[in-house]
Specification:
The structure is a single chain. The protein is an alpha/beta fold. Helix content is about 25%, strand content about 20%. It contains 5 helices and 7 strands. Strands 3-2-1-4-5-7-6 form a 7-stranded mixed sheet, with helices on both faces. The radius of gyration is 16 Å and the shape is globular. The two termini are about 30 Å apart.
Length: about 210
Amino acid sequence: MTRHPQAKTGAAPSCEVDQWVLAEQGKRQRSGENVTALLIGIGAEEQALRMATAGARVLLLSDGKAPEHVNILQQPASTLSAPEKVLPPRPFDIICCQRSLCAFPYNEAKQTIRRLLARLKIGGKLFISLYGIHSDLGDHYADGGKLVNDRFAPVDAALAERYELHGPVCLYSERNLFMLLMESGGAVLRTSTSALGHVRGVAAHI
């Protein structure tokens, strides 16, 4: 997982998913809500600072250095997937998981999303991004011809170095992501594919 330098307070996000999350936070705060959020994955440290500075209470699952802010609580990244680790029972308004679930086979990713959805308030939203099968990572990908349920292999060595992917991954199409969210019990609100071929989506807990 790539680690990024700590963002300055108020630094604007370049990632579209992070922009969606901040827009959702603003909408909820304008309605008088005290927003709580759980953040995991690439860029989570910077996004935690943005959200905390804007007034949200944030739980950051990361092994990197958390920004110093009274509204940020940090736990190890392994909290996401290890069965012996228990996610906090407090329900969240927003959960954002960026690229992390590609490190798991499809069925394990589905189980993890179910755990995350269970930690959302009714009407809460899960924002997710995944590496795409139609991105450059899909070139020379050994499992490219397999169904997503059976897809779990290393990417090309040069790309693995560039993306810091040091193990097998599951790559997704937009359709795969839609099915992942739906099969996990989420109400899918939107999916899209970036210009680089990676996929992202939003699901609600209803």
